[in-house]
Design a protein that fits this description.
Layout: H1 6-12, H2 23-30, E1 32-36, E2 45-47, E3 50-52, H3 54-66, E4 69-73, H4 81-87, E5 92-98, H5 101-104, E6 108-109, E7 114-116, E8 118-123, E9 139-142, H6 146-154, E10 164-166, H7 171-179, E11 185-189, H8 190-197, E12 203-208, E13 213-219, H9 226-240, H10 243-252, H11 260-272, H12 274-288, H13 292-303, H14 323-328, H15 337-354, H16 363-374, H17 376-388, H18 396-402, H19 409-412, H20 423-446
Parallel strand pairs: 1-4, 1-5, 9-10, 9-11
Antiparallel strand pairs: 2-3, 5-13, 6-13, 7-13, 8-11, 8-12
Helix pairs in contact: 12-13, 12-15, 13-20, 15-16, 16-17, 16-20, 17-18
Length: 465
Amino acid sequence: MRRLLFPLLASLALTACGRPASLLEEVKSGGELVVATRNSPTTYYEGPNGPTGLEYDLARLFAEELGVRLRLEIPENFDAILPMVIRGDVHLAAAGLTITEARKKLVRFGPSYQSITPQLVYRQGMPRPRNLDELDGILEVVAGSSHEERLKALKKEHPGLSWCANRELESEELLALVWEQVIDYTIADSNEFRLNQRFYPELRVAFDIDEPEQLAWAFAHGEDSSLFDAARAFFNRIRADGTLAQLIERHYGHVQNFDYVGTRLYLRHIQQRLPEFIDLFQKAAQETGLDWRLLAAIGYQESHWRPKARSPTGVRGIMMLTLDTMRHLGLDNRLDPEQSILGGARYIAMMHDKIPERIPEPDRTWMALAAYNVGFGHLEDARRLTQMNGGDPDKWVDVKKNLPLLAKKKWYKKTRYGYARGHEPVRYVENIRSYYDILVWYSEQNREPAIRPAFNGVLTDFPTL
C-alpha cells in the first residue's frame, strides 16, 4: 500500500504565503479522507443496501462535512491498524478502538462517542466461570486488541491465566467459534456481543472483564492538530444536534432486549416454514421493489408464517390483513398465501410512499412499518407530538419515544386521531428489524436464492424448547 506520509507532507508543503500547510488543508486539497477500519458488524460491512456500520456512517459524514471523498483502508489484521496511523498511511483510524493508557502513548484519541464493556463470553450448556481463576479451557482473543492488553495486565493478579492471540480472525468470528464449541471462551465488547447473540443464541456473558470503556477515533501524534480539531468539532456538532444518537439507535436500537426462546424458534422456522413461502415473498418483492427478506420479516412478525393465522381483532393470513384492506388492494382471499403476501407487500409499499421523501433510509422504512402496524394517521399524530416536544419528526429515534404517548390521555387528546396503543408499533418495528437482520445474515451465509434445511451444518441441530 502506498505510504501517504501525511505528517511529513504537512510539514513540508508550503502555501502561497510561504507558510506550512495544515493536514486539514492537505485533506481538502487532495479531495480524499483516508480512514483505516475493519470489517465487522460494529464498524464497516457491505449490507443489503450498500456499505454500512457505525464507523462507516460516522466517517462518511465527516468526509462530507470536509467536502471530500471517503476512502477506506482495511488491513488484513487488527493489530496493523494503529501502525498505519503512526506511519501516516492513513489520516485516522475509525475501527471501534478502545481508549487505553498504552494506546494513548502511540496515538492521539479524538472525542469518545460510545461506551462499551469488555465481557468474557461462553456457550450456554457449558460451566459458567465466575472469575478468571475458574477458566477451564481455551480462551482466544483478537491479537493486538484492548482485550489482549487487559489480559496481560490481569496476568499479574492471575498467574495461571493463559490465552491465544489470533491474528487471523475478527471478534465476531471468535464468537462463532465459541458457539460451535471449537474454543471455550473469548472476550468481546458489549456492543459486539449484543449484535451477534441474535445469530448465535446460546452465547452468554460470564462476567465483565473491566469497567465500561470509551471508543474513539485514533490520530497520529504531532504538532499539527488541524484535522483532529475538525473531528472534535464534528463530534460536538453531531452530539448536539442528535445525529450521533440517531446513528447509534440505527445500529443498536433494536438489539437491546434479547429473547432466547423467540430467536431460537425463529431460526427453526426459517428452516421449517420459510421454504414453502420464499418464492412468494420474492415474487412480491419483484412487484413492489422491496427486499424479500424485509417482507418475510414482516410476515413472521405478523403470523410466524402461518397461512391461517387469526387475531382477536379479525385480521387473518400470513400478513394479517383486514377484509377492507384486501378489497382495497384488489384481492379477495386472505387465507391464500400468495394473495396475503402480495397484499402485505403492496400495503407496506403504499405506506412507504406516504412517508415524506426527505426522510432518509432506513428511518423512512421504520416509519412505514410503524404506519403498517398502527395506521398512518396515528404515525402522523406521533410525529406531530415529536415536534411539539422538541424532537425531530423525521428521525425514528425521536418518533419512537413519542409513539407511546398516544396511549396517554394527556397527549392523545391533542391529536387528530386520538388514542392508540403506541407501545405496540415501537416493539413491532424493533422485532422486524431484528428478524430482518437475522434473515439477511442467514441468507448471505447460505448464498442460495432459497433457504434450505441444511445451512452449512451450522444451524441444523436445535435443542428442544
